[in-house]
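so ive been stuck on this for like two days lol. basically i have the seq below and the ligand is zinc ion, smiles is in there too. i just want the complex predicted, nothing fancy, no docking runs or whatever. if the output looks off dont worry ill sanity check it later, just need somthing to start from for the group meeting slides
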Amino acid sequence: MVQVYYFSIKTHIKSSAVSFLLFRFSLYNTYTVLSITPIASGSKGNCTLVRTENTSVLVDIGIPLFYVEECLQKINVAPKEIGAVLVTHEHGDHIGGVRAFAVKYGTPVYASASAASRIKIKLGQTVSRRFSQFQGNDFFVGDITVSPFPLCHDVPCTGYSFLCGGEKISMLTDAGAVDDILLKRIADSDAVLIEANHDVDMLKASKKYPAVLKRRILSSQGHLSNAVCGAAILKLALGGVARRFILAHLSMENNYPELALSAVISALSTHNLKDGRDVYLTVAEQYKVGNTVRAGV
Ligand SMILES: [Zn+2]
Ligand SMILES: [Zn+2]
């Protein structure tokens, strides 16, 4: 009798342990589905992959078709798997490869209503047929909820949050400014890809850029500087949820990865926050597929 009792307790402990492990496993699975991989990032062309186990989307294709295909192959993603191309805005570094990709693979293209008509004109009739436009409401691509939000740029521009399984990843580039309303909107993101376009002093000292272009970049409808990016990351990090940040859309003329990183690290140090301990920073590069950042790890 005692033996049977002992056996049943042991079995119970064993099965509880298995249930606990299964529970942890399902939790792990539930909270590690969403990820983001910068394919190309910078003034010469942008493309970002966001995926779950079941759905993959590209945000912008501002690089040539052959290069997207090559990059996707490196990370074992078949172009046919891409469920949608989400376009942020009409500038060439974001749409240069959209038409070729959408036509070859029959991929649906999404953009905001305010940007769509302008993008359709630039991309031509063949892509117009594959075009869906949104008004600002959330929509679904597979198991990903896409939540678009407007950004300040010199043309209509969209930032995106992606949600799945309780996880959230947000991205914003080509934004002249970030205000508290925008930061509040993305504060509960597990990971954020955010623009660190230029170092203000490098830009001002540039001999290559005409004054009018400098004014545009520095304006509230231009691009985020390293300093503004650092201040935004500090606010998000202090919020206590967002911990993984990808610095993106760096100018090849007026910035470099170490400079962008050091600006953000110095902003964080004002509140004793450290890269590698409190937050995790990476830099998306122009000609290299970046590390995949998972929302839940
Ligand atoms: Zn751009
Ligand atoms: Zn732009």
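The chain is about 40% helix and 25% strand. The domain at 31-294 is CATH 3.60.15.10 (Metallo-beta-lactamase; Chain A).
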